[in-house]
Known about the structure:
The complex is a heterotetramer, with 2 copies of chain A (341 residues) and 2 copies of chain C (332 residues).
Chain A lengths: L2 H5 L1 H26 L14 H8 L7 E3 L5 H6 L4 H8 L34 H14 L5 E6 L6 H12 L4 E7 L2 E2 L2 E2 L8 H6 L4 E6 L3 H16 L5 E6 L19 H10 L2 H11 L5 H24 L19 H5 L7
Chain C lengths: L1 E5 H15 L3 E5 L15 H5 L4 E3 L4 H13 L3 E5 L6 H18 L9 E6 L14 H5 L5 E3 L4 H13 L4 E6 L6 E5 L11 E4 L4 E5 L2 H15 L4 E5 L2 E3 L3 H11 L2 E8 L4 H12 L9 E5 L8 H4 L6 H12 L8
Parallel strand pairs in C: 2-3, 2-4, 4-5, 5-7, 6-7, 10-11, 10-13, 13-14
Antiparallel strand pairs in C: 1-8, 6-12, 9-11
Helix pairs in contact in C: 1-6, 3-4, 7-11, 8-9
One magnesium ion binds next to strand 4 of chain B.
Amino acid sequence: MTKSVRKNTEQYLHLYKQMVRIRTFEENANQLYLNAKMPGLTHMYIGQEAVAVGICEALDSTDRITSTHRGHGHCLAKGAEFKQMFCELLGKAEGYCRGKGGSMHIADQDNGNLGANAIVGGSMGIATGAALSAKLLGTKTVAVCFFGDGATAQGLWYEVMNMAALWQLPVIYACENNGYSEYTPTSEIAAGSLKARAEAFGIESHKVDGQDVLAVHALTQGLVNRLRNGEGPFFIELETYRYHGHHVGDINRSYYRTKDEETAWQKDRDPITNFGRWLEEQDIASSEELSEIISGIHAEAEEAVQYAIDAPYPNHDEVDTHVFAGVKHALPYISGDSNGS
Amino acid sequence: MTKSVRKNTEQYLHLYKQMVRIRTFEENANQLYLNAKMPGLTHMYIGQEAVAVGICEALDSTDRITSTHRGHGHCLAKGAEFKQMFCELLGKAEGYCRGKGGSMHIADQDNGNLGANAIVGGSMGIATGAALSAKLLGTKTVAVCFFGDGATAQGLWYEVMNMAALWQLPVIYACENNGYSEYTPTSEIAAGSLKARAEAFGIESHKVDGQDVLAVHALTQGLVNRLRNGEGPFFIELETYRYHGHHVGDINRSYYRTKDEETAWQKDRDPITNFGRWLEEQDIASSEELSEIISGIHAEAEEAVQYAIDAPYPNHDEVDTHVFAGVKHALPYISGDSNGS
Amino acid sequence: MDREITHSQAVNEAIAEEMRRDSTVILLGEDVAEAGTPFKVLSGLVEEFGTERVIDTPIAEPGFMGIAVGAAMTGMRPIVDIMFGDFLFLIMDQLCNQAAKTHYMSGGKLNVPLVVRTNLGATRRSAAQHSQSLHALVAHIPGLKVALPATPYEAKGLLKTAIRDDNPVVIFEDKLSYQMKGNVPEEEYLIEFGQANLLREGNDVTLIGTSSMVQTCVAASDLLAEEGMSAEVMDPRTIVPLDERAILESVRKTSRAVVVDEGHQNYGITAEIAARISEKAFYHLDAPIIRLGAMDVPVPFSPALEDLTVPTPELVAEKALSICRGELVHDA
Amino acid sequence: MDREITHSQAVNEAIAEEMRRDSTVILLGEDVAEAGTPFKVLSGLVEEFGTERVIDTPIAEPGFMGIAVGAAMTGMRPIVDIMFGDFLFLIMDQLCNQAAKTHYMSGGKLNVPLVVRTNLGATRRSAAQHSQSLHALVAHIPGLKVALPATPYEAKGLLKTAIRDDNPVVIFEDKLSYQMKGNVPEEEYLIEFGQANLLREGNDVTLIGTSSMVQTCVAASDLLAEEGMSAEVMDPRTIVPLDERAILESVRKTSRAVVVDEGHQNYGITAEIAARISEKAFYHLDAPIIRLGAMDVPVPFSPALEDLTVPTPELVAEKALSICRGELVHDA
Ligand SMILES: Cc1ncc(C[n+]2csc(CCOP(=O)(O)OP(=O)(O)O)c2C)c(N)n1
Ligand SMILES: Cc1ncc(C[n+]2csc(CCOP(=O)(O)OP(=O)(O)O)c2C)c(N)n1
Ligand SMILES: [Mg+2]
Ligand SMILES: [Mg+2]
């Protein structure tokens, strides 16, 4: 066990915990769906945990992220709590968005998460704008824009990369390349090279194993430091894999990818298993300690799920609140009642 | 005078004539504006003639082009006539679009011009779609998408390049880099390299002197042949310059570019002067012959202008025709009169 | 001969028949081929027509919409699949500045025969960006036709007509009805645009419903019947063109109308229909026209809230009853 | 003290004052800095506020709109310049799916205080893609406020209010009126949203006009006066929120209304206003409400055609007269 490893013990364990939290959250969310306790559909982050955790651990809570339809991992990695998240997924009043957003719009402003987004690529401008604010206000904070490989097809990305590069904005474009856009291998719908696309705008670009939390974290930490010193923007392509279907209802996947491929990633490249093994090898934690971490998180999740199930829905009169900031009820307001009361 | 030059005499003279036609057309259009005879504004192509002519001379009339707000040059180079063009610019019924389109929407379907476009970048999809048709219908025709350097900022370009590359469509993206986006040097609003942006999608890319009609033509001819054989798409960046303002009303330009710069291009790099000199040097045409060409075209233009001035406006009852194909009058039609009669 | 098939099957049949009939018909969109779309509406088409005609695109709606416009101008008849109606916002420039205006701007020389197939409808717990009913936006733009099928029969007949139309047509399917069954003849048929369908005859009030709200109006008419009121139920089927004559005829008979649509109410479809009736059946009206659109809020995720935003049969019946009884008097 | 300045100067002053007052106000758009926009409306601002706050963007409307949304969510108050209202189609996703819904979707935690400044209006010989009046599209989307100034006074007061508003506001200027002069006080003032302005009092008919059509209605009222009719002229100023109370009060007094707007008529602004009046002033109406929007055709280039597409004072007066005289009876 090297000195630096010892020094970082706490952080290593934190990385591990955060990944386990995400996986545990997702397993519970999937179960809620299967038990017909969750309204609608949701997209599982399982398999990609090292990406969200490796990146977000390099950020402060005042740094901003934008997230995607597959957003629970980013939200948790940026510091969100189980209870408010499960409440949101079930449409309850105590959810992060008072149940109005749900899985695809979960946001956690206090921890700098500007929200998941149900429009593929829809948050690329938002993250870039957060970086513009940081620069203009001189906050020294940074922004990370999470998006998938499929989202690279959206023209918006090229528009905002151009401006980010011109204006040297403190933003990282983090592409989680899990190989698929819904039910289509992205290789069939993406020409050329993703990295070259960013580089063409003069943006320094990196490719990293998205299953290796330490590699992701080290790369990001370096880039974040440079962003805080006025460099940037940067692009990172993270090679990763989603274990589950595109969403919880996507069960029969054989027409677009093989079972073998799925098994291989889960067996050989699982970010949690592999990092756990490394922690043991490095004598940072014993297998028992890791099990304890896991069971503690499982218990916490179970409690949060039950809390969310029991929690109340928003009152009916909330249906037209929060349409406009500063207006209590939108319906009277739009017809000219100036207080919207 | 080499053999090949001799063989191509007719074509060389045609290139020259076409460039002179464009310049003459534009000078007349500008004069119509100055004399308050033309409704609205228009964007002069003067200075860029070698681009349109060099490219369009490599095309058949069944090949398609899409054009821009600065579109008279493309339209003429693709074979349009003065009379219908001037009529269109003056909003007359005999115009190519019956006066409904005007300068910014001039189209000439019979010669394969799918139209100018007043949305910057707006025709990038259209050209790509024309190439898709060509491929699916097996026509062996190609499509050329003309656009400016400023238009490269539009995300649409990256979206359609991706598909054109994936589907190997017979399309050339021809970027006329005249250095300016309206009143801003494009270097201030474009990061990285335009060529690299296309190359990132695996698209073979070329840069050429857009003031050298032979160079433009030779490059294009080679690429068109390859497109007809199933290769493609391609990107060409053409270095060029607009002599006039962004539009006819843009007279005071000193805040965004110097008089010296303007003079230098006009003096040293004028596509018509230089090509004329070359024609003389190569003994293809005498200075008198060139003057005759010019005065013939001037006379033709003058006549066409007068024709257009005298031509009638469309009848009032045309205002709601051509809203829907197959419907005579749109106004009754949308309220349920099935014939729109 | 009639048979029962689902809305989804009706759409699939319409496309398959037209693709067989006309080799220039092609399909473009995300996951339209092997996956047959997330709603599985297009399953089997790629097997029959191949990947040259059933084309999986990248996630680039503006891009493939633009490509479809160009393809339509040059000999093809593309059907563009926009997975959720909410993504229409991404293609507005290509649809409204290009497709809608090309025929006019070219003085009739260029045609853009394409179909945008998309959907509408809330209460699927899909939240604000996957639940909108945005047909009012495209209905406002000259040069676009807009169809709103309400049954499998209409889904097939209107879509076939749309594919054969030489203009851009936007057709909105109710995504909650894909599994709904209904009678669809085996024989080929088309449904002409601009022809409303009278579902129920009645004397006391006309209920005009579009798309998902047609069944809501039918259910409301049942509730009204229990109260001894007879309601006429009318489905315009297309909102551009709009069968104004049929609507006015009905309202002139019943003297009262409730207009129901799942788009937002404010500046929405119900306004246009109500305004036309008010103007052109003015002297026949016995009561103000009631409009019921979706509530003017972004669609909330929570089921407890979402269900409040869409008109229900009970609400339609209640409003109809109140005007029939002369109770709804804002300005007395 | 009052002075006469142009609409263009009024806009410029509003922005300059707000930028001085609040350092988080920034301007983004194409050629907004040195060029001061093609309309020269913003001249001088970059000199005072520098290129950090007056930002020339690439020609990438979706991109800089998205950036503005993100900046607004994180402490800035961006004013986004959309050079022609027609380009709104390009930013619809960022404006309507993102900006408009963020506050709601986040349960009130995130705000998007931004202004989209754009324009409307035809008859400038700019053809179909540079002449549209698209305010109906954004007015339909919950979460957006929509302002339509008609005078320099309103241009300044409404824009200042918009900049201070904590929500996304779309403000449409009439591009033909930039050189129009009007009284604008030296002292600071704001104009509250949702407060209609009564320009003329009258008894026979209410003319409700928006933006460019306010002056058309005023001119029509002059023509009507010549015929011995007294028209009330009302300018709603904002269409979201809409001052329904003021409109209804006027129509209940005059018993007749003509609604005039430069957007397309079909599924446009006039429909909503007419439908509300018809419903809520039903028992006071002596005649059908007349709607006059822009003709439902793409805007033609030819002056001979373009001028036919926009309501004129003569047309407004003629229609008003016909309802005052009880002549306009569609359904008698
Ligand atoms: C603009 C838009 N188009 C299409 C969709 C439907 N959709 C949701 S997720 C998805 C695939 C996204 O792929 P990728 O970006 O790789 O993310 P992943 O799902 O792999 O995490 C698609 C097409 C959408 N939500 N938004
Ligand atoms: C989408 C869009 N944004 C802005 C404009 C206004 N505009 C017209 S031409 C132009 C500059 C175009 O520059 P470039 O593409 O280089 O063409 P050039 O004028 O140099 O030929 C701009 C910004 C427009 N017409 N469309
Ligand atoms: Mg992916
Ligand atoms: Mg240029």
